[in-house]
Amino acid sequence: MKQKLLVLGGGFGGLYAARELRKRFGDSADIQLISEENYFVFQPLLPEVAAGAITEMHAVTSLRELLKKVRLRKATIHSVDFARKVVTVFQGVQRRPTEIAYDHLVVAMGSRIDLSRVPGLEEHALKMKTLEDARRLRAHIIERLEHADVTQLPEVKREALTFVVVGAGFSGIETIGEVKELIDRSLKYYPNIDPSEVRVIAVEFAPRALNELPESLAAYAVRQLKKRGVELMFNTGVASVTGRRLVTSTGETIPTRTIIATIGNAPSPVVLDMGLELTQGRVAVDRFMRAKGHDNVWSLGDCALIPMKENATERNDFAPPTAQFAVREAAQLASNIAATVKGKALKPFQYKSRGALASLGARRGVAEVFGVKLSGYVAWLLWRAYYLSFMPGFDTKLRVFMNWMLDGLRPRSVVALQVPNAQAARYVHYAAGDPVFERGNRSDGFYTVVSGQFEVSYYDEGQGKDITHEVGPGGHFGERMIMGESTRYGTVKAVTDGVVLVLGREEFTKLSSTFDALGSYLEDHLSRVYHVDWHAKKVTEVESSLPKAS
């Protein structure tokens, strides 16, 4: 019988794990990879996408192209049942739950950005994690330049031309370097903006930048950025943020309408819900990359804390969450799964970094390769050559190389293509007989009937029987998700042609928690219809639960 090998996540760890498993097992195993997107994002290039050095489509590659003979399932992971060895996903338009069995499970879910510890940062900061983040950042910067060029209000112009990057690690330094280059190369199109009016600031809690590199290279990077007009604040945290200012931990107020956060890595909610043992917010694994307490669950990449020596305790005792290490982890993990299947001995993960590189923008970089320190133009060229070689797929390499060549010859475009936001509230039309959702589907929103009749069916545990009733204009359904339920409790279908207004899950939860009249109504409705005792969170409780500035 073929082994069922299931990989969760389509980032560096997941992609390379699936490829290595295919190399090891060939056709003797069924290998699946589950990802919410059908493309792989080369994250080191996101700052260049944000700066317009390369187009967004050239920083991604089709997972189906990269994973030949690996089944790709575009779906949202809901839960994992380790006892039954099944993963439940939501897939398709109706977001129906589907169970996928496995013999060995590889968790490569990466990490997410969590900025909730700083008041206002989650709501007002731009992030640098996904392709959409990079596209949104570029459009935002161009929009600020457009606004600054026409405004007659000095304070508005000052805020529009102040750009703050939070974090001075690799991502922060590369982002601030590219942002500064985009602004500098765009100013010729904005005659009413003087270069002296632009402020680009990096705020870093640590005493220095680029902790992963030798101090001499970090100092070079700081000098180069300062020469280009970048301000760097070390030993400085962020106390609070609004739409028009950032307050530092030292009490300084920076008027700004652009805050870019490159900090705040946290485990994926799906990983948290799995119940795996976590250490420092990452999946605790042994030196073979097996999740502790499980013989057939493995983890790698950003979401795993992988020890590289016995009794590891210090930061350098564990594999860093970088692409370079994820690729090597994938090869060893695949080898260990193959050894497990064959009953052979496993090998611990061991790897020594070949070095680290960072681009500073403006054709400058820093690098340490095999102990050799490089800086300036040579390091920048090496950075580009290294990442070009690292990119999966020849077509991707070619497209990025051509983008770089053209960027060196042509001016940057200042076309601001806005990234449309998903509608929080939308109208949906149904024909008679159409299903709206079925019991067990993923809860995606709260439905209010605008016109037509809809049949709602659910099992009433109190009465021990199925209940069916119709809902007409002014009525609603889908409200049980306010209780935290992630799947649908009942089934709804259109009896006649009709229209409903759908309010997104997150927006509905926020509204019902802060709008007392709606919260009180839902309390009564859930008690009367479903015999459920639920109490709305009042505005004062919501305020007290928000993080406060120190």
Automatic annotation (TrEMBL):
Keywords for the protein's UniProt record, in alphabetical order: FAD, Flavoprotein, NAD, Oxidoreductase, Transit peptide
GO MF annotations in UniProt: NADH dehydrogenase (quinone) (non-electrogenic) activity
PROSITE patterns named in the record: CNMP_BINDING_3 (PS50042)
Gene3D superfamilies: 3.50.50.100, Jelly Rolls (2.60.120.10)
Domain Cyclic nucleotide-binding, residue spans: 428-511
EC identifiers of the protein: 1.6.5.9
SUPFAM superfamilies: cAMP-binding domain-like (SSF51206), FAD/NAD(P)-binding domain (SSF51905)
InterPro entries in UniProt: cNMP-bd_dom (IPR000595), cNMP-bd_dom_sf (IPR018490), FAD/NAD-bd_sf (IPR036188), FAD/NAD-binding_dom (IPR023753), NDH-2 (IPR045024), NDH2-like_C (IPR054585), RmlC-like_jellyroll (IPR014710)
UniProt enzyme class: oxidoreductase
SMART domains: cNMP
Pfam families found in the cross-reference section: cNMP_binding (PF00027), NDH2_C (PF22366), Pyr_redox_2 (PF07992)
Catalyzed reactions per annotation: a quinone + NADH + H(+) = a quinol + NAD(+)
Source superkingdom: Bacteria
UniProt xrefs under PANTHER family: EXTERNAL NADH-UBIQUINONE OXIDOREDUCTASE 1, MITOCHONDRIAL-RELATED, NADH DEHYDROGENASE
Family, as annotated: Belongs to the NADH dehydrogenase family.
Protein known as: NADH:ubiquinone reductase (non-electrogenic)
Organism, as annotated: Tropicibacter naphthalenivorans
Classification lineage: Bacteria, Pseudomonadati, Pseudomonadota, Alphaproteobacteria, Rhodobacterales
